[in-house]
Amino acid sequence: MIGPIQALTFDVFGTVVDWRSSIIREGQAFRHGVDWAGFADAWRARYQPMLERVRSGALPWTPLDTLHRMSLDALVADFGLAGLSADELDHLNRVWHRLDPWADAIAGMTRLRRRFTVAALSNGNVALLVDMARRAGIPWDAVLGAEVARTYKPQPEAYLETARLLGVAPEACLMVAAHNNDLVAASALGFRTAFVVRRTEHGPAQTTNLAPERAWDIVAEDLVDLAVKLGC
Amino acid sequence: MIGPIQALTFDVFGTVVDWRSSIIREGQAFRHGVDWAGFADAWRARYQPMLERVRSGALPWTPLDTLHRMSLDALVADFGLAGLSADELDHLNRVWHRLDPWADAIAGMTRLRRRFTVAALSNGNVALLVDMARRAGIPWDAVLGAEVARTYKPQPEAYLETARLLGVAPEACLMVAAHNNDLVAASALGFRTAFVVRRTEHGPAQTTNLAPERAWDIVAEDLVDLAVKLGC
User: Fold this and answer.
1) How far B215 CA lies from chain A's nearest CA (Å)?
2) Does pTM surpass 0.80?
């Protein structure tokens, strides 16, 4: 049985927004003849290694926008994008500010927010998350996570600083994520856990995070299902 | 002429919410026979000296909820409240989480938010501001300010860290406040400035901040007037 929850802390990329389809959609509208699916996958494949450079101390604290840009600069030649202007590259890098939510996300979060504080606990920087929320209508009560803690998930301080800023004990926070490893890290700190199944985050051939790998407190098909399961 | 603005950063106590009337209202419903107006004024009179203890380094970083409680503990005997239980004192201390907005605030901010990012740049801690916003319906895009910068206004980092987290240059931030000294500090860092006239923040006999003391970029009668003056 799950104890009393006061705040829901959300992973964002993959859990609330569909980054892969959004990058493909925007890329295809921007330029024909580029393998935008391959590009999206290659860009995201550099994500965890980049975060690890910061977590390990090889890089000082660096916001995600800057890490995205470092990865993008390393990819453009391989995908026939080397001719982009500086403005075009800046615009492309900020596609992460313009990701679309999954179809259930806004409806589910709007219901959840009636009863619980809903906060981003993301590796995205605050400006990225605020721009995304304004464009997509994501109803955050607070945008927290890695940047305010100055460390990336799954480092403990990203979770603990978010709970502390919300004034809520970890045991009264429900971490909502489509990734088992995010929930492993949060649960080790006392957070309650909700796994949301996102079977196509990585496209139709996804092989990871298709099912819960532990007995999480809640397993939900999407965020509307989570609202139902929390009685909202 | 004012340059292009991307984000509005708001002072909260006195500018968005009417702390004095809210404390009096809640106090009178809680217990008769107490001078709640005198109590509210005495509590707030200890506010800047408490912040100064943190700004000066005499105290380490301490969130506003804790400073409010230190001040409250020093006041209870003088106002006949020494018999309150620990739970009652905790509840009273959190009246700052339950302040009511000025009558124009929600309507004005809702209009402003259509066009600009609206963020709290307050000395209130994040949990206080989130609770207040959820109760009152204040439509923040982000709740930032002193606690995420770990220093109190008017220290420069409180303003600069908020602008940095928003990804907006100070020159594209409009600081909105009912207090001339807040705008003095912000404008020294490059922020644009909007003075909102709140003639009864300190009650009917208010003597301070009745008028702009410099040529601020905008002077508004309230937040709806600010929306009109910004073309929202």
Assistant:
1) 30
2) yes
Mean pLDDT in residue range B59-70: 98
Cβ of A149 under 8 Å from any chain B Cβ? no
The question of ipTM being above 0.90 is answered as yes
Considering only CB atoms, which chain A residues are within 8 Å of B134? 117, 141
Residue A207 distance to chain B (closest CA, Å): 35
DSSP bridge partners of B142:
B119
Q: What is the DSSP track for chain B?
A: ------EEEE--BTTTB-HHHHHHHHHHHH-TTS-HHHHHHHHHHTHHHHHHHHHTTSS----HHHHHHHHHHHHTGGGT-TT--HHHHHHHHGGGGGPPBPTTHHHHHHHHHHHSEEEEEESS-HHHHHHHHHHHT---SEEEEHHHHTS-TTSHHHHHHHHHHHT--GGGEEEEES-HHHHHHHHHTT-EEEEE--TTTT-TT--SSSS-SS--SEEESSHHHHHHHTT-
Residue B1 has pLDDT above 90, yes or no: no
Q: What per-residue confidence (pLDDT) applies to B2?
A: 62
**Mean pLDDT across chain A, nearest whole number?**
97
CB contact under 8 A, A148 and B148: yes
Domains in chain B and their CATH numbers? 7-18+101-229 (3.40.50.1000), 19-98 (1.10.150.240)
For residue A227, with 0-12 CB atoms within 10 Å meaning exposed, 13-18 middle and 19 or more buried, which class applies?
A: buried
What is the separation of C-alpha A27 from the centre of its chain, rounded to a whole number of angstroms?
A: 20
* Cβ-Cβ contacts under 8 Å, B166 against chain A: 126-127, 130
Which amino acid, B232? C
The amino acid occupying position B108 is G
